[in-house]
Amino acid sequence: MTSSFEQRIVELGIELPKPPKPVASYVATHQIGKLLYISGQLCLAPDGKLVATGSLGDNVSVESGILAARAAAINVVAQAKQALQGLDKIKRVVRLGGFISASPSFSEHARVMNGASDLIVEIFAEQGRHTRSTIGVSSLPLQAAVEVEALFELH
Q: Which parts of the sequence belong to the Endoribonuclease L-PSP/chorismate mutase-like domain (predicted)?
């Protein structure tokens, strides 16, 4: 049976990629009781290539950053789906954490992170309204422009 969240993904025309495996000494997801933690996901497209590399305020536009945040959030959802063998166990999205590779003078981190937040609300509707932190960093793995982590509450 397909969850209403999965039906919404299809309606939105979103392709969930096969989630990437961790490349270091960590796990992609960890469930503790009714909480599912998703490790930071890079802004990988379904073809495995980064949507944007470099830094906002330097060589990455805000528009590209928004698309990168959206791609990272899609990877968060893909990891959740794989961990839970579907999305029907998700009660709500509790929190997103966003890491934006940015120059010291860049100040539109929140606007970039809206790419991830908006995607989550598109999929999960009211259950997708979440708390959030958005942090500017000097660099990310593989020179990715954006990384997003998440916390879900389960039924």
A: 6-148
Task: Region of 13 please: left (phi>0), alpha (psi -120 to 50) or beta.
Answer: left
136 within 8 A of 97, measured Cβ to Cβ: no
Amino acid at residue number 57: G
pLDDT, tens only, 57-85: 999 999 999 999 999 999 999 999 999 99
What total of structural domains would you count in the chain?
A: 1
Q: Encode 27-58: b = buried (16+ Cβ within 10 Å), e = exposed.
A: ebbeeeeeebbbbbbbbbbeeeebbbbbbbbe
Domain with 118, as residue range(s), is 32-94+114-137
The C-alpha atoms of residue 130 and residue 12 are separated, in whole angstroms, by 20
